[in-house]
């Protein structure tokens, strides 16, 4: 009898011990659910320390180590899994964990071998193992989503499966495959298992948020539903903080405080508060808060120096802004530096003479970091317009030319902006090169030829090579095909005027000069100015003739191109009788 009681007592203790173990592991998993990785790690570290052979605790500790996107510790997780596997080589859950590590190391085939071994050892009947494999493939950048869906569906089919996390991971897999309807159904299945599972409502809201502001009423309903189900679910507050950051800074600040109240203590939290001061336009306070955060931490969060740099820039303190950017770029990891950081730093550097070359390297980094053509063009254009307003035409032309180089469909305005600024900067040959490209793309328009004719005369006022002359002649030869197009008549007349003066004064060929006058009159019979010039040429002596309103480089301005200022040609006075 006593022996029987003793046996029952032993069984009771063992069962009670298993319940405690499950509760402790579930406590750690709950922290992971809240994305409180630091707290989760602390729970699992205690479990592993108490029993190094606890494979479940070891698996979840590894997951806590590799969980946070901005603070992954893959090396420590790998070492933990390898060490625990030495004593538990046939543990399916640890093999699934190792497969996760290998996916993160871009060893897809090795990872799949681990997963298949884990499934074989568990006979495909462990929802926990299948869930671990599905999660790994969903969250690793190079994971196999189809494989994840297959294994997670196997897990949902296991009799008695009651873990809502399996359906969350299945929904995440579908969402990554852009199967929004299937994703929502999976999240709703998680709610069917656990109605208070805020994470599922939050995930449904994220589906609708990706569809744009038109769905705002729907996704906000799901976000509020998540908060109502579990006010301690921090990720929804973090999302709403970011959502309102640019549109309603007051609401953003409110959600930030709620997020911080429901997350682990972290050096980032101080940064978030400094960043919020910046968003509120309290730049001096943002700097003070950032300094407080930096002083109070052994390893300050690098973004704090970025906050200071931007705030000093807003306060027009370029010296301190540059110093803060210097520190930020020194301490921040390169992959976390964005296009705006590079661009803003470059702009600050350009305020200090001698930094042009260095600034350009950062501008190119900014452009490289932006994957869209529109983004790259906008960046170059912003710089070009800024330099143009400062009358720094050399740098304006340099960045306008960058636009010409990267755009797939270069417009007339793009060519004009680059070429015109090279001309203003005195880089006439570079301007010629730009307008040569204009001519190649628009060979049946006179504008490129006209601009280059003027450039050639600026390079050599004697036009010894005849390049200016040839350009004007090309325009005249196009008369019949272009004369009725907007803006072309002004350039035709300007070209004829140059040819008239050239043959009258340089070649002393009045007959040839008059032939060009006649062409001008044929273009516009009401042009009394040209009739006046013809009278002068046919009655003049052999001395050089000054053509009224003309010069070696014609002053006639072409019709306005996009971005070009037009001036009206001066009227040539009629010959006095």
Mean pLDDT: 89
Shape: elongated
Q: Tell me the distance between the termini.
A: 145 Å
Alpha plus pi helix count: 30
Total strand segments: 0
**Percent helix range:** over 70%
In short:
This protein is an all-alpha fold and 577 residues long.
Structure, explained:
The protein has 577 residues and is mainly alpha-helical. It is built from 30 helices and no strands. It has helices at residues 2-33, 37-50, 55-66, 74-87, 92-104, 108-121, 127-139, 145-156, 164-176, 180-193, 198-209, 216-229, 234-244, 249-261, 267-279, 283-295, 303-314, 318-331, 339-349, 356-369, 373-389, 393-406, 412-424, 428-441, 447-459, 467-477, 479-482, 488-506, 510-523, 528-539. Helix 1 runs antiparallel to helix 2 (37-50), helix 14 packs antiparallel against helix 15 and helix 19 (339-349) packs antiparallel against helix 20. The chain is elongated, with a radius of gyration of 37 Å.
Based on the model shown, name its key terms:
single chain, disordered N terminus, 577 residues, disordered C terminus, elongated, mainly alpha
Note the topology.
Elements: H1 2-33, H2 37-50, H3 55-66, H4 74-87, H5 92-104, H6 108-121, H7 127-139, H8 145-156, H9 164-176, H10 180-193, H11 198-209, H12 216-229, H13 234-244, H14 249-261, H15 267-279, H16 283-295, H17 303-314, H18 318-331, H19 339-349, H20 356-369, H21 373-389, H22 393-406, H23 412-424, H24 428-441, H25 447-459, H26 467-477, H27 479-482, H28 488-506, H29 510-523, H30 528-539
């Amino acid at each position: 009898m006593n022996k029987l009681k003793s046996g029952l007592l032993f069984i009771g203790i063992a069962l009670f011990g298993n319940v405690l173990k499950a509760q402790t592991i579930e406590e750690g998993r709950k922290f992971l659910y809240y994305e409180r990785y630091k707290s989760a790690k602390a729970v699992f570290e205690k479990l592993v320390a108490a029993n190094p052979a606890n494979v479940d605790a070891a698996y979840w500790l590894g997951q806590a180590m590799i969980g946070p996107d901005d603070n992954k510790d893959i090396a420590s997780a790998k070492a933990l899994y390898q060490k625990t596997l030495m004593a538990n080589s046939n543990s399916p859950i640890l093999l699934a964990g190792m497969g996760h590590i290998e996916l993160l190391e871009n060893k897809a085939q090795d990872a799949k071998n681990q997963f298949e071994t884990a499934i074989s050892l568990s006979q495909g009947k462990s929802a926990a193992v299948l869930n671990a494999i599905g999660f790994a493939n969903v969250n690793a950048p190079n994971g196999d989503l189809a494989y994840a869906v297959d294994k997670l569906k196997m897990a949902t089919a296991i009799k008695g499966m009651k873990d809502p996390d399996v359906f969350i991971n299945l929904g995440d897999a579908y969402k990554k495959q852009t199967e929004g309807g299937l994703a929502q159904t999976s999240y709703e299945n998680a709610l069917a298992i656990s109605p208070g599972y805020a994470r599922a409502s939050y995930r449904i809201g994220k589906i609708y948020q990706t569809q744009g502001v038109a769905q705002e009423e729907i996704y906000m309903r799901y976000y509020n539903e998540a908060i109502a189900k579990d006010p301690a679910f921090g990720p929804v507050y973090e999302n709403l903080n970011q959502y309102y950051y640019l549109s309603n800074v007051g609401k953003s600040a409110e959600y930030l405080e709620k997020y911080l109240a429901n997350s682990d203590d972290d050096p980032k939290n101080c940064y978030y508060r400094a960043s919020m001061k910046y968003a509120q336009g309290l730049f001096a306070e943002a700097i003070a808060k950032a300094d407080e955060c930096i002083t109070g931490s052994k390893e300050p969060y690098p973004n704090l120096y970025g906050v200071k740099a931007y705030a000093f820039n807003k306060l027009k303190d370029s010296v301190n802004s540059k110093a803060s950017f210097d520190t930020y770029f020194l301490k921040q990891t390169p992959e976390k530096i964005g296009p705006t950081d590079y661009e803003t730093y470059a702009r600050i550097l350009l305020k200090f003479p001698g930094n042009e070359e260095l600034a350009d390297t950062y501008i190119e980094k900014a452009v490289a970091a932006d994957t869209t053509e529109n983004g790259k063009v906008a960046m170059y254009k912003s710089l070009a317009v800024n330099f143009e307003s400062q009358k720094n035409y050399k740098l304006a032309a340099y960045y306008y030319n960058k636009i010409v180089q990267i755009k797939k469909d270069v417009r007339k305005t793009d060519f004009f902006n680059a070429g015109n600024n090279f001309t203003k900067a005195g880089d006439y040959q570079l301007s010629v090169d730009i307008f040569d490209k204009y001519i190649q793309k628009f060979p049946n328009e006179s504008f490129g030829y006209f601009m280059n004719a003027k450039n050639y005369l600026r390079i050599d006022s004697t036009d010894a090579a005849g390049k200016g002359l040839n350009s004007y002649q090309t325009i005249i030869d196009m008369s019949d095909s272009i004369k009725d197009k907007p803006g072309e008549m002004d350039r035709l007349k300007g070209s004829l005027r140059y040819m008239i003066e050239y043959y009258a004064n340089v070649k002393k060929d009045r007959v040839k000069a008059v032939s060009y006058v006649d062409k001008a009159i044929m273009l516009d019979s009401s042009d009394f100015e040209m009739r006046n010039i013809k009278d002068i040429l046919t009655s003049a002596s052999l001395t050089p003739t000054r053509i009224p309103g003309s010069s070696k480089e014609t002053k006639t301005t072409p019709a306005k191109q996009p971005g070009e200022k037009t001036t009206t040609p001066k009227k040539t006075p009629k010959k006095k009788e």
